[in-house]
C-alpha cells in the first residue's frame, strides 16, 4: 500500500520543491481537501482518520509537521469555501491521468477505512468524487475492495 501511495504522490510533486506554503492551485491542496470532505461525510471525523491523513501527507509528500499543518490549514480553508466536489475534481481531472485518478479513489477509501468501517454517506461521497474524476464504477468498487483488504476487513456487499 505504501508503495502505491508513494508513487501516486511522487507523480504529483516530481518537479515541485517541498515548502511549507502551497500555491492555491497546488494539486496537493485539492487532494487533501477531498480527503477532508470524505472524512466529514458521515458527520463524525474519527481520530484514526486524522492520523491516517496526516501520516499519508507527511510520508508521501516528504513533509515535516509544519508543512503538513500548512497544507491541512490551506486545504481546510479551500474545503470550507467549496460548495461541492467539482471545485477540486475539475482541477485534478485536468492534472492527473486516468491511473492517478483511480489511485486517488483508492486513497479516499483508505481514509474511510482508517476507522474500521464505512458509512452510506462516505459511499455516496466517494461515488460522486469518482464520477466527477471520470473513474468507472467498476474501478471504484475494485479500489474499495482493495482498501478493505488493506484494512484487514472482510468484504461486505458488492454494491456502491
From TrEMBL:
Organism of provenance: Ciceribacter selenitireducens ATCC BAA-1503
InterPro entries: DjlA_N (IPR007791), TerB-like (IPR029024)
Pfam annotation, one family: TerB
Regions that span the bilayer: none
Lineage: Bacteria, Pseudomonadati, Pseudomonadota, Alphaproteobacteria, Hyphomicrobiales
Record protein name field: Co-chaperone DjlA N-terminal domain-containing protein
Stretches assigned to the Co-chaperone DjlA N-terminal domain: 28-142
